[in-house]
Each structure stands twice: as C-alpha cells, then as structure tokens.
Amino acid sequence: MLSSQPEPENHPALVQITGRRGFSCGPHMLADGTPLPPVAPEHQLRCDTVLVLPSDYQEYGGTVERWADPEEDYPDCSVGCLHFRPLHDETYGGPDLDWGTCLNARAPRAGLLTFEHQAGKGCFEAPPEPEDHFDDSNEDGHLA
Question: What's the structural domain count of the chain?
Fold first, then answer.
C-alpha cells in the first residue's frame, strides 16, 4: 500500500527546518533617544511569525555575529541579492523591499519569508556584472 506521506530518507531534498519564530522589530528609537514611529501592524506580524534560523544575523535572532571580522563581508538580501524576491505591498501597489522570499535552493532560507537584513552571510549572490565588450560604434553611437 502506498503511503500518502513521502519518507524523508527516500527524498533527500526534503529537509526538516527547525528554528524559533519571531524577532524584535526594534529599535523603536534612534541612538540619540529620538522615538521612531510605531511599526506598521503587518510588519509587526511578519516579525512575530518569521522563522529564525541559526544562520541568520544575531540582531534578527540567529547566531551569526555581523561585523565580527572587519576583514570579511557581511552582505544581506537588501544589497541586491540575485535570489531575493520581494513581496507585493498592497498599500502602494509595488514591491515590499523589506520582506521577500529567498529563491536560492542552496541557501538556508530557501523558500522562506525573509526580512531584507536578516541573513546573507555565506549565501548572498550578486547579479552577474555586465560583460565588458568591444564597442565598435563611433562617437554618434552608430556602428562604424
């Protein structure tokens, strides 16, 4: 009889994701003590429910100490990761650049709701640089 549930050992792509939910949406004031406006309810809801992984930065509940080694890069999704896909923001009808989904199948946050600054160490991938090519146009921009 076939089981409706696949056996994990027969499907290596299936992984169990463990972690806790939520991180602080703070700070709620600037370093000089100036209060910030309240966090939007939908932003707070996402902060409360997002899965936190050990590979996330410490300020977002993970174990990676960002900027611990001044010689290393600590990128995050907000600096143009090729695999970060923003959610749609109904408020203004465009992308919500704060929140998205990671589409890097090799990354710890693959397929997960992700805050733009939450992760990136070890999985960030920049888009390919445009290739330098020989420009054989003249000063007017027309082919010579």
Answer: 1
136 within a domain of the structure (yes/no): no
User: What whole-number distance in Å separates Cα of residue 144 and Cα of residue 62?
Assistant: 56
Does residue 144 sit within a domain?
no
Averaged confidence pLDDT in the chain: 76
Over residues 38-51, the pLDDT tens digits come to 777 777 888 888 99
- CA nearest 86: which of 100, 98, 70? 100
Domain that holds residue 59: 39-127
Q: Kindly state whether residue 8 falls inside one of the protein's structural domains.
A: no
pLDDT reported for residue 109? 92
Give φ, ψ of 30 to 5 degrees. Answer: -75, 165
Dig out the tokens for 110 from the structure: 């693959």
Is 142 part of a structural domain of the chain?
A: no
Give the whole-angstrom CA distance, residue 69 versus residue 120. 15
Q: Give whole-number Cα distances, 28 to 33, 58, 60, 96, 112, in Å.
A: 9, 17, 15, 20, 26
Q: pTM for the whole thing?
A: 0.67
